[in-house]
């Protein structure tokens, strides 16, 4: 297997009301809205990208928020947990903060020598904060609501739920270049490189669980990193030679993407690290204005009329703060 991902690129989920979604991820979790655009396949809805200051690969959770979207069903064939990395000893602060914001949390538990706090977003998406004992060197986005010493550093890991692990494990190791790290009961951990925050996926085997239904409150797909388009093109050819049904390379403006399903049913993506989110607006202004790809610009007036206005905190754009 000549191609090995260096870790997670982003996770994309489905939400309901976009204003409620933005309020939660900006004010409650303290992330930055780094791009306000639309679903290129359904431009009547937003595509909102949350991450660190620049939207670096590995920090991103993105949403398609449909106001009337039905509630999804968590189950096999999908990513059932998205975890963020926070500093060690921060979970007590986070538990108090979330509860002050009206978010119910579970108790802090220890798993694989990491402390974990579980909670859900307003649409029911299952989330976790993980304090990695060896730390996370990534710089956080500092906001008044979530100070830097406690702030989210980026994605920590995702959990894929499957009925059986063997074929999924084969795709992760042979298709993405991950390595099997360990097994604990019905949970199998795989890592990219040396593992750690942003480079981990857990496969949870639940043979009797129902099939998941992707709608509001569930993950749509999980994206893994490729350094550039040349690597992505060769990677796509190798996957096709292995008999994997892969899409053509798609232009997502801020990266290039290919999509395929792992045998357990979860939709996966390989996304390039470049060109990044400053390709169409300056760093300090990320997320402020609605950005459309060139092929949708002629319909801007109609698209803007369909989208509700978002209430962004001033600190999302330091220039205007």
Automatic annotation (TrEMBL):
It holds the Pfam family Glyoxalase. Keywords: Lyase. Gene3D superfamilies: 2,3-Dihydroxybiphenyl 1,2-Dioxygenase, domain 1 (3.10.180.10). Residues 7-132, 154-273 form the VOC domain. GO terms for molecular function: lyase activity. This is Lactoylglutathione lyase-like lyase. The lineage of its organism: Bacteria, Bacillati, Actinomycetota, Actinomycetes, Pseudonocardiales.
